Amino acid sequence: MVAVVGAARCTSLVSGSDPGVQPRLRELHERLWAAYNDRTEMKRYYEVAEAVNAHWHPWTFHGVIRSLASQGMSVLDFGCGSGHAWENLRETGVRYTGIDWSKAQIEENHTQFRGQPVDFLAASLYEVPAPTGSFDLVISLYVLEHVVWPRQMLAEMVRLTKPGGMVAILCPHYRSMARMPSLPHGGPGSLRDKLRRGDLDAAAKHVWMRWYWPRTVRRQYPNQEVPWLINVTPAFLQEGWSVDNDAVYFVDRPECVSELKRNGATDITEAVLARFPEKLRRDKHVCFIVAEKE
Fold first, then answer.
1. Range of weakest confidence among 41-55, 100-114, 175-189, 191-205
2. By residue range, what is the domain housing residue 236?
3. For residue 238, what are the CA distances in angstroms to 29, 43, 186?
4. Which stretches does DSSP call E strand in the chain?
5. Which helix (H) or strand (E) holds 107?
6. Mean pLDDT of 33-38
7. Which of 85, 90, 122, 273 could be a cystine partner for 106, CB 3.0 to 4.6 Å?
8. Into how many domains does the chain fold?
9. What pairing do the DSSP bridges indicate for beta strands 161-172 and 74-78?
10. Domain with 7 in it: what CATH number?
């Protein structure tokens, strides 16, 4: 049974650079967009996202991003959600703009932050209605993994950055882990939970995806040969939301760095992290990039 489960999972992944899969990607994008604009469905989603990103401690990746901001800088937050980044950047004196494709959440942000020196915009992350070179710092916090066309988002982030400005990205490095939470694990809950309730089928799927799938994905989807890997059947659309089961892009840091470079932004992450704890540079489960626009 486990072998059958594994074979089925492989069909969920496609190369986003393949012209033949674009209709499937458009359908996926439309379904995700509808879900993110459903107030009832996504209320908990944004509450959890805010809690996870609530406190930007100095010696974390969030703290590194805050260290890039300074008085008077214009900052654009891609996929701003509930605006938690503003709460952590407020004291730096930046001019903050948040953009998100959830109109419902942006409306709530306008109410919550009324009277504060911030701006929020509901728009596509692939085509932001702002002039080229508008911002000193463009950031994205745990958003890239949720977009169907990551190359377009990366290009748009660079476009909106001023020459000499920076792009900062923080998200899971799924390629390094060779697994992602949105591939079906037999429903939400731990392996112990599934065994306790006697759901052996769900337990078998969980074991496969947690321990055997990484070997399969590394063998069947080599990084360079199958670029921009997208999960077209995220568990979120079948099971309802749980943490990161709506992720679709199998994030690969090297291909992101190459795409940023192709669009005119050079990776300076090592130099930026030089003054922070070594553990940040050793963390292979996180994709953290700071790139400077040429």
1. 41-55
2. 1-294
3. 15, 18, 11
4. 13-15, 74-78, 95-100, 118-122, 135-141, 161-172, 229-231, 265-267, 286-293
5. helix 103-112
6. 84
7. 122
8. 1
9. unpaired
10. 3.40.50.150
What CA–CA distance (Å, rounded) separates 75 from 140? 11
Distance of CA 230 to the CA centre of its chain: 12
What distance, in Å, lies between the first and last C-alpha atoms of the chain?
A: 53
- pLDDT exceeds 70 at position 265: yes
Closest CA to 188 of 207, 202, 204: 202
As given in the structure block, the two tokens for residue 258 are 């190459």
Tell me which amino acid residue 16 is: G
Alpha-carbon distance of 245 to 268, in angstroms, equals 31
Tokens of 103: 């109109």
Query: 50: closest CA among 68, 76, 77?
Result: 77
Say what the pTM is.
0.88
Give the Cβ contact number of residue 175 at 10 Å: 22
Question: Do residues 76 and 160 touch, judged by C-beta distance below 8 A?
Answer: yes
Is 46 in contact with 82 (CB distance < 8 Å)? yes
Distances (CA, A) of 20 to 14, 17, 23, 123, 217: 10, 9, 7, 27, 21
Give the residues across from 40 on adjacent strands. none
